[in-house]
Design goal:
The complex is a heterodimer of chains A (112) and B (113). Chain A is mostly beta strands and 112 residues long. Chain A contains no helices and 11 strands. In chain A, strands 2, 4, 5, 9, 10 and 11 form a 6-stranded mixed β-sheet that branches. A 5-stranded antiparallel β-sheet of chain A has the order 1-3-8-7-6, with no helix packed on it. The radius of gyration of chain A is 13 Å and the shape is globular. Chain B has 113 residues and is mainly beta. Helices cover 0% and strands 51% of the residues of chain B. Chain B has no helices and 11 strands. Classes of the chains: A mainly beta (112), B mainly beta (113).
């Protein structure tokens, strides 16, 4: 069974701080996706990383896929209250490219 | 631009009652799925469908049934509700071509008393 472990589970920081959250597995994934979920809403895709070692940037968010494609990280620079939410990583299972397994998420709170 | 629509948004049931959670998408997506989200457990796949007439079980299928008679609709049925099924349920759809974004509805918050 492919599992994705996310850390930390909770993170509370002040506006302007930098942070990194992690998504790790003992299994190789063909790709990983990162989603953000706000209270009362469904998750929304932020990025998909496909190539080992790939780095993608989305404004103040930087996503990296490990060289061995077993892990990924999300770095936020100068966090803002609008970054508050639950960050989920997800990857396709061996049973099908659209059938995803999700990590348990990192709940980020950015205080003004 | 509706995307994925789930109804109802909230529901309270008594143990043993049955109900259907509705999910509809207007993006002509082939792949649809149902997840449940519980505190500290992340999203767990219940059932999924790769196209009309085709369904399969996910990680936690017991107590739930699905059908896919059209591309647009993918209802989830609880046959005899149990307190352990208290959760937030999300429906999602995607184009089914690999590495595609999953589009989620806003969820149904279900409480079983």
């Amino acid at each position: 069974t492919q599992l994705l472990e996310q850390s930390p589970q909770f993170l509370s920081i002040q506006e302007g701080e930098n942070l990194t959250v992690y998504c790790n597995s003992s299994s190789v994934f063909s790709s990983l996706q990162w989603y953000r979920q706000e209270p009362g809403e469904g998750p929304v895709l932020l990025v998909t990383v496909v190539t080992g070692g790939e780095v993608k940037k989305l404004k103040r968010l930087t996503f990296q896929f490990g060289d061995a494609r077993k892990d990924s990280s999300l770095h936020i620079t100068a966090a803002q209250p609008g970054d508050t939410g639950l960050y989920l990583c997800a990857g396709p299972t061996q049973g099908g490219s659209e059938k995803l397994v999700f990590g348990k998420g990192t709940k980020l709170t950015v205080n003004p | 631009n509706a995307g994925v629509t789930q109804t109802p948004k909230f529901q309270v049931l008594k143990t043993g009652q049955s109900m259907t959670l509705q999910c509809a998408q207007d993006m002509n997506h082939e792949y649809m799925s149902w997840y449940r989200q519980d505190p500290g457990m992340g999203l767990r796949l219940i059932h999924y469908s790769v196209g009309a007439g085709i369904t399969d079980q996910g990680e936690v299928p017991n107590g739930y049934n699905v059908s896919r008679s059209t591309t647009e609709d993918f209802p989830l049925r609880l046959l005899s509700a149990a307190p352990s099924q208290t959760s937030v349920y999300f429906c999602a759809s995607s184009r089914g071509e690999g590495n595609q974004p999953q589009h989620f509805g806003d969820g149904t918050r279900l409480s079983i008393l």
